[in-house]
Amino acid sequence: MGLPIEGEPMQIHSYKHNGHIHRIWDETTILKGTQNLVIGGNDRTVVTESDGRTWVTREPAICYFHSECWFNVIGMLREDGVHYYCNISSPFIFDGESLKYIDYDLDIKVFPDMTFNLLDEDEYERHRREMNYPDVIDQILKRNVEKLIRWIRQRKGPFAPDFIDTWYERYLSFRK
To answer: Where on this chain does Mg(2+) 2 bind (predicted)?
Structure first.
């Protein structure tokens, strides 16, 4: 397996519960890599959707993955401040080349003033039925939505003041 190596590129692979690929981010620079935590940075990276369509991210982003959290957080640096996109997901695994997780549909969008919206509840319910999410997974995911909201309100982890800016500076040091 191996640990992610700081400064090295990795791909990020998002899957659905049924094992099908959902989305691939082509290249993210590893800024911190341990057994439990991966922080990555990217800017204008190619993203490939499950149907083969591609698009390019518009702004620099810092990605936060923790092995004990059923969510991951992407902090996007925009002109009006940091916007966060949080995916409710399985904890990550790293296979030596790619960071992988299962995307469970629910998302939280956080604005620079730290207000937020829970998104895609209808999609979650549809996929929960179609892919037969076990009750235990449903309970874990709902608890982690609550945990994520607490982190946002408490400015914890990737939501802490200066977290994204500090890691973005580190990302820039690898780009030189």
So the answer is: 105, 107, 120, 123
Asked whether residue 113 is marked as a ligand-binding residue, the answer is: no
Residue 148 belongs to domain with CATH number: 2.40.380.10
Residue 152 backbone phi and psi in degrees, to 5: -60, -50
39 lies in a domain? yes
Out of 23, 58, 153, 170, the active site residue is 23
Q: Is this model's pTM higher than 0.85 or not?
A: yes
> For 84-134, where are the alpha helices, taking DSSP H only?
121-130
Domain tally for the chain? 1
Give the pLDDT band (50/70/90) at residue 175.
confident
Do the annotations mark residue 135 as ligand-binding? Answer: no
How far, in Å, CA of 74 to CA of 54, rounded?
A: 19
More confident call, 97 vs 62: 62
Query: How far apart (Å, rounded) are the C-alpha atoms in residues 45 and 28?
Result: 8
Domain of 125?
A: 9-169
| Residue 123 among known ligand-binding residues | yes
**In a domain? residue 56:** yes
Q: Are 144 and 134 in contact (CB under 8 A)?
A: no
Whether 2 is in a domain gets the answer no
User: Cβ-count burial of 11 within 10 angstroms (0-12 exposed, 13-18 middle, 19+ buried)?
Assistant: middle
Q: Please list, in sequence order, all residues whose beta carbon lies within 8 angstroms of the beta carbon of residue 70, skipping any fewer than 6 positions away.
A: 88, 89, 90, 91, 104, 140, 141, 143, 144
